Amino acid sequence: MQINFEDERPIFVQIADGIEDAILTGAFEESGQIPSITELSVSYKINPATALKGISILVDEGIIFKKRGVGMFVAPGAVSKLRDKRKELFFDHYIKKLIEEAKKLGITNEEILGMVERGYQE
């Protein structure tokens, strides 16, 4: 996980996204422990409150949970929740725009599907 201080996204959002990515790629397994607030703040040289805010997003979404006195852990079913969330975001941010542009250009459904297949092959 990397923090880009030049990124327009707030640091706490980057923390949450980075942990989500790590869960999706298997770096943090379901029911496994994630780095503590202190570890995150020291590793990335950020304020602990900023790290906590990023973690809190994931707690609120049910992606991670706290075991009092032990630490933070990836919730069972987190991978499935994250995939569903990211698929919906993918549709909203990419597919809708793709279809909008395709309509302007007169590209048919079949042509779009062909382009997507070509993209997977390249």
UniProtKB/TrEMBL annotation:
Domain HTH gntR-type: 9-77
Record-linked PROSITE patterns: HTH_GNTR (PS50949)
Alphabetized GO MF terms: DNA binding; DNA-binding transcription factor activity
Classification via InterPro entries: Tscrpt_reg_HTH_GntR, WH-like_DNA-bd_sf, WH_DNA-bd_sf
PANTHER family: GNTR-FAMILY TRANSCRIPTIONAL REGULATOR, HTH-TYPE TRANSCRIPTIONAL REPRESSOR YTRA
Top-level lineage group: Bacteria
Keywords: DNA-binding, Transcription, Transcription regulation
Listed SUPFAM superfamilies: Winged helix' DNA-binding domain
Species assigned in the record: Acetobacterium wieringae
SMART domains, sorted: HTH_GNTR (SM00345)
Name of the molecule in the record: GntR family transcriptional regulator
Keyword DNA-binding appears in the UniProt entry: yes
Gene3D superfamilies the record matches: Winged helix-like DNA-binding domain superfamily/Winged helix DNA-binding domain
Coiled-coil spans in chain: none
